[in-house]
Amino acid sequence: MSMRQFSELVGISNPYLSQIERGLREPSERVLESIASALRTTSDALYEQAGIAADEPELEGPSVVDAVKADPRLAPAERRALLAVYQAFTEGKGPRPRRRRATSSPPPAAP
Protein backbone atom coordinates (compact mmCIF):
# COMPACT_ATOMS: atom_id res chain seq x y z
CA MET A 1 0.00 0.00 0.00
CA SER A 2 1.36 3.39 -0.89
CA MET A 3 1.75 6.21 1.61
CA ARG A 4 -0.96 8.14 -0.25
CA GLN A 5 -3.40 5.22 -0.01
CA PHE A 6 -2.63 4.74 3.66
CA SER A 7 -3.12 8.45 4.42
CA GLU A 8 -6.54 8.29 2.73
CA LEU A 9 -7.43 5.15 4.70
CA VAL A 10 -6.40 6.80 7.98
CA GLY A 11 -8.06 10.12 7.09
CA ILE A 12 -5.04 12.41 7.33
CA SER A 13 -3.04 14.25 4.70
CA ASN A 14 -0.12 12.57 3.00
CA PRO A 15 2.35 15.36 4.01
CA TYR A 16 1.25 15.10 7.67
CA LEU A 17 1.68 11.31 7.63
CA SER A 18 5.13 11.78 6.11
CA GLN A 19 6.07 14.22 8.89
CA ILE A 20 4.93 11.70 11.51
CA GLU A 21 6.96 8.97 9.81
CA ARG A 22 10.10 11.14 9.82
CA GLY A 23 9.63 12.12 13.47
CA LEU A 24 8.97 15.78 12.71
CA ARG A 25 5.52 15.69 14.30
CA GLU A 26 3.84 13.65 17.01
CA PRO A 27 0.35 12.42 16.15
CA SER A 28 -2.59 13.33 18.33
CA GLU A 29 -4.42 10.56 20.18
CA ARG A 30 -7.17 10.65 17.54
CA VAL A 31 -4.70 10.29 14.68
CA LEU A 32 -2.81 7.54 16.50
CA GLU A 33 -6.08 5.66 17.07
CA SER A 34 -6.90 5.99 13.35
CA ILE A 35 -3.47 4.69 12.36
CA ALA A 36 -3.77 1.79 14.81
CA SER A 37 -7.23 0.94 13.53
CA ALA A 38 -6.02 0.96 9.91
CA LEU A 39 -3.17 -1.37 10.90
CA ARG A 40 -5.60 -3.57 12.86
CA THR A 41 -3.76 -3.10 16.14
CA THR A 42 -4.01 -0.85 19.19
CA SER A 43 -2.35 2.46 19.93
CA ASP A 44 -0.80 0.81 23.01
CA ALA A 45 0.88 -1.72 20.71
CA LEU A 46 2.18 1.10 18.52
CA TYR A 47 3.62 2.88 21.56
CA GLU A 48 5.21 -0.37 22.68
CA GLN A 49 6.75 -0.99 19.25
CA ALA A 50 8.11 2.56 19.33
CA GLY A 51 9.73 1.77 22.68
CA ILE A 52 7.63 4.26 24.61
CA ALA A 53 5.80 1.80 26.86
CA ALA A 54 9.07 0.10 27.81
CA ASP A 55 10.35 3.34 29.34
CA GLU A 56 7.41 3.70 31.71
CA PRO A 57 8.46 3.27 35.32
CA GLU A 58 7.18 0.25 37.19
CA LEU A 59 4.30 1.10 39.47
CA GLU A 60 3.63 -0.37 42.88
CA GLY A 61 0.28 -1.95 43.60
CA PRO A 62 -0.08 -4.44 40.77
CA SER A 63 -3.76 -4.96 41.46
CA VAL A 64 -4.53 -1.32 40.66
CA VAL A 65 -2.20 -1.22 37.66
CA ASP A 66 -3.50 -4.53 36.30
CA ALA A 67 -7.11 -3.41 36.69
CA VAL A 68 -6.50 -0.17 34.82
CA LYS A 69 -4.59 -1.93 32.03
CA ALA A 70 -7.25 -4.63 31.68
CA ASP A 71 -10.35 -2.42 31.67
CA PRO A 72 -11.70 -2.47 28.09
CA ARG A 73 -13.84 0.61 28.76
CA LEU A 74 -10.77 2.84 28.98
CA ALA A 75 -9.12 4.43 25.97
CA PRO A 76 -5.33 4.21 25.82
CA ALA A 77 -4.98 7.89 26.74
CA GLU A 78 -7.26 7.38 29.74
CA ARG A 79 -5.19 4.38 30.86
CA ARG A 80 -1.97 6.37 30.68
CA ALA A 81 -3.56 9.30 32.53
CA LEU A 82 -4.90 7.08 35.33
CA LEU A 83 -1.58 5.30 35.71
CA ALA A 84 0.28 8.62 35.79
CA VAL A 85 -2.04 9.96 38.51
CA TYR A 86 -1.69 6.73 40.50
CA GLN A 87 2.08 6.91 40.19
CA ALA A 88 2.10 10.57 41.26
CA PHE A 89 0.18 9.71 44.42
CA THR A 90 2.22 6.64 45.30
CA GLU A 91 5.75 7.53 44.16
CA GLY A 92 8.25 7.68 46.99
CA LYS A 93 5.70 7.02 49.70
CA GLY A 94 5.98 4.24 52.19
CA PRO A 95 3.01 2.82 54.01
CA ARG A 96 0.55 5.43 55.13
CA PRO A 97 0.60 6.26 58.82
CA ARG A 98 -2.49 5.21 60.73
CA ARG A 99 -4.74 8.01 61.81
CA ARG A 100 -5.61 8.30 65.44
CA ARG A 101 -9.25 8.12 66.31
CA ALA A 102 -10.86 11.40 67.09
CA THR A 103 -11.66 12.03 70.73
CA SER A 104 -15.25 11.76 71.84
CA SER A 105 -15.50 15.49 72.59
CA PRO A 106 -17.53 17.49 70.08
CA PRO A 107 -15.84 20.08 67.87
CA PRO A 108 -15.75 23.65 69.24
CA ALA A 109 -18.81 25.77 68.47
CA ALA A 110 -18.48 28.46 65.86
CA PRO A 111 -18.45 32.05 67.28
What can you tell me about this protein's structure?
With 111 residues, the chain is mostly helical. It has 2 domains: 55 residues, Orthogonal Bundle (434 Repressor (Amino-terminal Domain)), CATH 1.10.260.40; 35 residues, no CATH class. Helices cover 51% and strands 0% of the residues. The protein is built from 6 helices and no strands. The protein starts with a helix and ends in a 21-residue tail after the last helix. The relative contact order is 0.08.
List keywords for this structure.
single chain; 111 residues; mainly alpha; 434 Repressor (Amino-terminal Domain); 2 domains; 6 helices
CATH superfamily of the largest domain: lambda repressor-like DNA-binding domains
Strand content: under 5%
Counting structural domains, the number is: 2
Average pLDDT score: 76
Brief summary:
By secondary structure, the protein is an all-alpha fold. The chain has helices at 3-10, 14-21, 29-38, 43-49, 62-70, 76-90. The radius of gyration is 22 Å and the shape is elongated.
SSE map:
Layout: H1 3-10, H2 14-21, H3 29-38, H4 43-49, H5 62-70, H6 76-90
